[in-house]
Every structure is written in structure tokens, then in C-alpha cells.
Amino acid sequence: MADPITLDIPHKLGKAAVRERLDSGIGKIGSIIPGGGQVQHAWDGDTMNFTVSALGQTMACKATVFEDKVHAEVDLPPMFALFAGKIREALGQELPKLLK
């Protein structure tokens, strides 16, 4: 398995507001995958564990909410590891939009 993609997304919203925005917007992540993807999520304290399934593959992800940032980690299955750079770029553009 490839190294996970990690991103830190700064914010000034406070934990409660970030959790609310992530809850209402996480489904949009599936739309950045060509052909679409299915997203499921659950909270464990301040960490949202979620999976994105597409093209017969599943990515295990988590986003931990801090007072000043969200730390996201995405474990790519081998099929998607070839596209890690493009996936990281797309996530870097799309994840901050969830907090607006």
C-alpha cells in the first residue's frame, strides 16, 4: 500500500462549525471522482472516519478537527496509488470548499 495522502486545511471557524460543515458536505467528495463515488461517514470524537467507494475500490479516510485546522488522511488502494498526485491535488482544491 502506498503512503497515505495527508492534508492540513486551516480554518478559523471553531470545532462545532467545522463538524457541522463536514457533516453536511462530505457527500460532495464523491462528485470529484470521475463517474462518481459513494461516501459513508461516522464520527469518533473529533475524528470523522469516512470511506469513498468508486470503480470497485474503497479509500479509507479520516479527518480530525482541531481548533485551527482539519488534518485529513486518505489511504489509497493500489489501483488509485498510481494517481496519488492528481488525487492529492483534487482534494487540496475541494476539501477547503467544504469549510466555506
List keywords for this structure.
single chain, 100 residues, alpha+beta, five-stranded antiparallel beta sheet, 30% helix, globular
Written description of the protein model:
This protein has a 5-stranded antiparallel beta sheet, with helices on one face. It is globular. It contains 3 helices and 5 strands. The mean pLDDT is 88. The protein has helices at 15-25, 78-81, 84-98, and strands spanning 5-10, 38-44, 47-54, 57-65, 69-75. 17% of the residues are buried. With 100 residues, it is of the alpha+beta class.
In short:
This protein is an alpha+beta fold and about 100 residues long.
How would you state the average pLDDT, rounded?
A: 88
Radius of gyration: 13 Å
Q: Roughly what fraction of the amino acids lie in strands?
A: 35-45%
Largest sheet: 5 strands, antiparallel
Overall, the morphology is globular
| Number of separate strands | 5
Placed side by side, the strands forming the largest sheet appear as 1-5-4-3-2
- String of helices and strands: EHEEEEHH
Q: How much helical structure, as a percent, in the residues?
A: 25-40%
Low-confidence region ranges:
none
Derived from helix and strand composition plus strand pairing, the structural class reads alpha+beta
Total helix count? Answer: 3
Which helices and strands, and how do they pair?
Elements: E1 5-10, H1 15-25, E2 38-44, E3 47-54, E4 57-65, E5 69-75, H2 78-81, H3 84-98
Antiparallel strand pairs: 1-5, 2-3, 3-4, 4-5
